[in-house]
Design a protein that fits this description.
The structure is a homotetramer of 429-residue chains. The first copy, chain A, folds into three domains: 3-233, Hypothetical protein af1432 (Orthogonal Bundle), CATH 1.10.3210.10; 237-317, Growth Hormone, Chain: A (Up-down Bundle), CATH 1.20.1250; 318-360 and 400-429, no CATH class. Chain A is built from 22 helices and nine strands. Helices cover 51% and strands 10% of the residues of chain A. A four-stranded mixed beta sheet of chain A has the order 3-4-7-8. Chain A has a three-stranded antiparallel beta sheet with strand order 5-9-6. In chain A, helix 5 packs parallel to helix 13. Chain A has 429 residues and is α+β, with helices and mostly antiparallel strands. The C-D interface holds C 14-18, 20, 34-36, 39, 42-43, 51-52, 54-56, 58-60, 62-63, 66, 183-187, 264-265, 284, 286-293, 295, 313-316 and D 14-18, 20, 34, 36, 39, 42-43, 51-52, 54-56, 58-60, 62-63, 66, 183-187, 264-265, 284, 286-293, 295, 313-316. Chains A, B, C, D: InterPro entries: dGTPase-like, HD/PDEase_dom, HD_assoc_2, HD_domain.
Chain lengths: 429, 429, 429, 429
């Protein structure tokens, strides 16, 4: 029998707290889940440093990836299956793209990419197309199949309907992570009526639109996003942990470049420090490796590396204060000088962080480079962009709230030290 | 102000998916949570290898410890506070014992203790009484305070009421983990009416008893335990992962003793292999270190160490078959011989595992060495042991179901190899 | 187009708190729901007098009937559809039987049937086969169709597979009411994993069996039943309300027979008092009519009718004491005499009620006249009756707990009256 | 002991699906719940005709009233108890006002008040101050106590803090009904983090303000209100049922005034038709009486009364079309004429209904006669009105969406009748 159409003897299920069960009927999906590259996602947390604020947020990208797959499966098998606008031959590529869309994420993904100037989407592509177990499984379908899956994830696939299932303003990716992150953090937002949204989705030639009777369910979804962003994803304390994480890695890289002699060999990091990352090195670097190295570094000679890694492990975070770079410019210059004078290297101990650096965005129809906006399909079949119909969505879309914070180690500042005293006076002002 | 009675300026809360919020009012509790020994519990999963079967079960002992603390807090602050049988001066020692009861757990606790012949309760004691941040904080209350907390956890504390809050057939520990493990795995059992159980708890001179009107809520709780044990805790596939974990560690230990030359230094393990574990070594060894070493070992020369560690990381588990050691004795001997002949070392590749080895038990009133049974307080104030009043509890208590399974690497057996063929024939019989 | 296969232009849904949505695709189902006989079920509570104890239990048989339909729909459309053992031509008759199985329930069904010696199953049949809107709709399918639906509900239908979907130890009826009653009362039992149970159901020639891997889910379901019975359905206080309800109706009937002159005409009750109930009279008598008459009766001359109806409306219930008719026989005789002496007619004010009179039962395999027991299908396809495989089920099945209670109006007893004093002494003993 | 401070021997609880348990410690509260006027609320649905659209919405004002009491109890006993700004002597009057605030609601409250020009708030006052069981119980506290409770509900009580617990933009009333109505309808909005809102409430001299850190929880609550209004409370189909209900009552009143001879005496309605309602008549008229009369009226000679009452009972509702009275003025005049010509009395069969007639409103700070807006308390203790800080709230507050619908009996229009044909043409345009 052809591999593409091969079904498991009996449907398998994974118990999932968000979707109750994840259903697998295809041999291909089963085999992909068993690959070592997919299993690796168990060792990468979905929300990076957020677990240091919301202690329940210890869930991995593995769970999320299964969840995205399940939502795509429900779309194609339950909702679209009998609609003529949907091309059934795209079923398998859609399922695989949903399952594998996060495959290239590194440990503490965002901080990590930032320090080493990497792009997880590129690594997803390299894993799918490279010499990997995932590639071997996908190739059993056909020689072109890995390329097709990769294109869906890269949004270059010709059939935009398929792309939009995974990457649009209301895709399976976002619908899973909002619900999942809400479940594991325990917050009360993040809930919306996905059943209803699925029921009102209508495939169109190059996108998925929403029957206008479902507008309120979509409003609720957009609001969930909005609340999750401000309450969870942009939480200033988890950003503090991320600042320390980045600075630790930057310090290690600096020391390496500087010829510093590490006590324990830093083999796993060498190619990252050199800016010349091989695929195997990338796949090998998961969060347990990072955390192990951080433990090693708590024993290093270098005081900054030791301090920062210890802070991260033991959650001795930096405090923060709101800052407006435009207005507070002089203050910042002055603080840098004072930190230098106080022997606190400002490169590591006085850090500005802006929420707009984070990989989340609100609903912003019309901005160039943005995802396709959400269209409502009116009873007369005309399309209307969501924020034109909804007051609520209009109110929150397109507004990029500036949120700059200055992070610093308050515990190191001593009121009895005159320089520190001046620093404190400026920060508390 | 005395440290013991010092309150935070404003109550602090942790968002918790199980109890909604964890409430902290005492400076002491706040300071304990901030210690590095308590933060370390974030790096130890609550359910060991279970996440390889129930992918949601990625939660840590950190979350669970906060949950136990919160239940104890509700008992002493909301339920017992106005009952004359409860000694209010025990409040703080009870809260600390609840919070710290799992402090000494090692990575993948049960497997780890087994291989290195360690006892997590002893390490909890050593952390509380030793040269640690936790000890430093507890000692601020009084010189004797760490000792008192340690005794409650060791069940040797004179006031058995306090002990029973943490360690009895219906204690804060079990009430938290059943609900928490159910929440994170997503299974539908594990739920019971804790609100009602708290309301019907009655402190007695040396234990906590249950008002008999609450019997059905208790039955429900006992049933939850029963279902969680068979469905989650004893799940044969997570036991397969545990078997591989143990065997990997055993192989590493064997190689070390044998003078094997590890490519990457195994400093973190030396004292464990030597059977001479220092407190600092113990605290340093968390699950990220274990997982990092397992990755290192996938590159080792030794074929067994390499194979086993790779299996664990990539979830290539052993298959299993039910076995009755009494009846199948000859078969087992024969299999050992055949494995030897086939070049598969039976010490690592043919492993019997019994559920009764696991650190869970059912409700078994009356067995020596067991926890105090649950007593119902009848309207006339007489006490009646639960299984005498409840048919359901009677039905499931005291029955130790034997469950032996034989684990082996089915993927290594080749039907075309005659020895393998004989092995397969025996295993499939 | 044939009516039987006519689909709605677009699927319609009802929002349902238990199943999220009830899905309707068939014109026939849509038309049945719109009949006046089905709409009448909105005016009959699912749990009779239980709302006087669990205030949330105000839900109607209308909701429950939709729920049973939905579960049958999921069985036949999602689970059985591709199994050769299932005869697809039975789909429609199964859906209709699920929807209509409770159609003949009268107001406060059990008490009502008891007083007037009626049988709701017979009235279900009469409504389906008689001159009604429901019959008119069903007949559009075919002349024989109403008869077929009626036979499924009466359990006389030849295809026992179909019967067992609605009436067996684990049917759609029970699966809906356990979950629904738990939801509306707010109790914490009543939950079980219906998704999993549906997945492990296997149609067999004359019944539905359960794949043995689903045993624990079934145990959980049986336990839910057990807990719901003792905690909700047999609650002694809602039985007190039922006692008063029955006695009020009995008094009204007695007065009618006795030629009493009612202030407001009792037209709606005449044929019930005469024992000669016409279908139209039956359909007209819903709970709003009963409650209205009870209000009318609070203004009647007859002291007993006035007192009892006022008690019911204002929830001034009888108190109760446990009684063992075998042992307490003499006491009961004595109490009757004393009530007579005290001017409290014991026919109305001293009432024994036994839980075994209630229309619920536990799991009792093997008793004659009982529903077919639950069979597990072992891996070798043999069948094994559930209580043989499950210790828990074995423990609670077949045990008929005797629960007799004596109800009386404690508020009418005056400690200063010597006869009352003697009554109180006996009751409190 | 003084009645006001009398506690129950043991706390009593009601199981509640929304708040888990309702806790009662005061003898006074227990006695109020047992009065016949409070028990009457069991016979009045919380959401009037909404159950004809959301079948789960069969819950009563009894449940809601207990829920409001419970929220007030949590505010005063858990949250405010140790805040100096809160006057503890107001505890009891606050609890009673919360419990009794809806006491005067009539059956299908809004429609009923409209037809008979009544005001439920006035009847709440009359029940509390009149010759009732409720008044008798309240008077046990002190002669002035009923008056005080009545003033809190009437918002004329001097201490505005107390008033605002029951009647403000974020009071116990709204927090209960949003959650409760969401629970019983089963919709996915209506959820917000009440625990957090309670925690950030701060009593001020004449109102309750919100700590600004809780802004997002308040936004979520405002959004819940918004969604519940448009999705549930203003649902066009339940408004259709309400239109028919009103028109039935209007027809009965018209016939009475006209000297029509009713078959069954309409005693219960006489004083309502006369516009001269006595308290006892009001209390006697609950929804079971209304529904019983509707059944009686399905047998009346008058064709309009018969048709309308039958429609309501059997849910044969009117259809509707959107209409803009300003623009469609001529069309409406024309339709009226055509309905007259067609023999369909437009007073009963062509009805315009506007959502702004409904007793719900959005958050509208600043409009005269409106409730006090929500104030955030900034870290510097300044107050800031919510919509100034929140983009979302600003977007939806103050916008009164016009929603006019024209209801008519589509089923009575016959395409083959030329007049009907013209009507249909206009309505479909």
């Amino acid at each position: 029998m052809e591999y593409a159409t091969q079904k498991l003897a009996e449907e398998k299920v994974f118990k999932d707290p968000v979707h109750r069960y994840i259903h697998v009927q295809d041999q291909l999906i089963w085999d992909l889940i068993a690959t070592k590259e997919f299993q690796r996602l168990r060792r990468i947390k979905q929300l990076g440093t957020t677990y240091l604020v919301f202690h329940g947020a210890e869930h991995s990208r593995f769970s999320h990836s299964l969840g995205v797959y399940e939502i795509v499966r429900r779309m194609v098998d339950d909702v679209f299956v009998n609609r003529p606008e949907w091309d059934k031959s795209e079923r398998l590529v859609a399922l695989c793209a949903g399952l594998l869309h996060d495959l290239g994420h590194g440990p503490f993904s965002h901080a990590f990419e930032h320090v080493f100037d990497l792009d997880h989407e590129q690594f997803t592509r390299r894993i799918i197309l490279g010499n990997t177990e995932v590639n071997e499984v996908l190739s059993r379908v056909s020689d072109q199949f890995p390329q097709k899956v990769s294109e869906v994830i890269a949004k270059t696939y010709p059939n935009k309907q398929v792309v939009s299932l995974i990457s649009s303003q209301i895709d399976a990716d976002r619908m899973d992570y909002l619900q999942r992150d809400a479940y594991f953090t325990g917050v009360s937002y993040g809930h919306f009526d996905m059943e209803r949204i699925l029921r009102v989705m209508r495939p169109q030639p190059d996108q998925i639109v929403i029957k206008s009777t479902g507008m309120h369910a979509i409003e609720d979804y957009i609001m969930s996003r909005y609340q999750m962003y401000w309450q969870v994803y942009f939480h200033p304390v988890s950003r503090s942990a991320e600042v320390i994480l980045k600075k630790t890695l930057e310090r290690a890289k600096f020391l390496y470049k500087d010829g510093y002699d590490f006590k324990i060999s830093i083999d796993h990091f060498t190619s990252f420090f050199e800016g010349n990352v091989k695929l195997a090195d990338y796949i090998a670097l998961d969060e347990s490796i990072i955390m192990a190295y951080f433990q090693f570094w708590t024993k290093e000679e270098d005081a900054i590396l030791r301090d920062l890694s210890t802070r991260f492990l033991n959650r001795k975070l930096f405090k923060f204060t709101d800052v407006d770079p435009a207005k507070d410019w002089e203050k910042l210059v002055q603080l840098e000088k004072l930190f230098d004078e106080a022997g606190l290297d400002p490169n590591y101990y006085l850090v500005m962080d802006s929420s707009s650096d984070l990989p989340y965005d609100f609903y912003r129809p019309g901005e160039e480079g943005e995802r396709v906006p959400i269209y409502l399909q009116l009873p007369n079949k005309d399309l209307s962009e969501l924020s034109r119909s909804s007051d609520i969505v209009d109110a929150i879309s397109g507004k990029r709230r500036t949120d700059h914070k200055l992070y610093y180690p308050k515990d190191l500042l001593d009121v009895n030290n005159p320089i520190h005293e001046r620093i404190i006076a400026i920060l508390d002002a």
